Amino acid sequence: MPSTSEIEAVGRAKVMSVQRPALVVIDMLNDFLASWEESLKRRLLSSTNDLVGMMRERKHPIIWVRQEFEPDLSDAFLEMIEKGIKITIRGTEGCQIVPDLAVAASDPVVVKKRYSAFFKTDLDNTLHYLKPNVIVLAGINSHACVRMTAIDAYQRDWKVIVAADCVDSYDREHHEISLKYLKDKIASVMTNQEIKQLLSAA
To answer: Is the pLDDT score of 49 beyond 70?
Structure first.
């Protein structure tokens, strides 16, 4: 007998077609994850690889987004410039995607300079080429880059799923607040199991 969550996921499949989803993974970078508690980091990476595997098995596109700034911070946030904060700097390992993630050489990679993966990047063009009918978001941080990307996707009339098992933040309070804000307004917030049910029902 199917569980309640499985029944709910199948029910959502009737109103949300996921025949052509695209997964967008945001800022899973060495600099950001270096200070995370190891168990939390491992869980996030494992869940993300599971989701990537589901998508790749069904030949759905996976887009990786990473933040990168010039060494002189000329293209960085105002706070970074004012405080001399140097993180995710071009030419360093810190701005690279953590090597534990299952990135394929053929996967598109988008470089961003601000919270939203859409702001002054080629993500719009990439999605226009791929023609998905729903965007699945994963990555960090939930309260900043994931939230802003979800809102910008929604404002572009994309259907959005936030992968609850594959997003997180160093700020747990605002992680929870952000998911609550996004849920069933800007996006559907779904576990990997629920997403798998949707993909299987497509």
So the answer is: yes
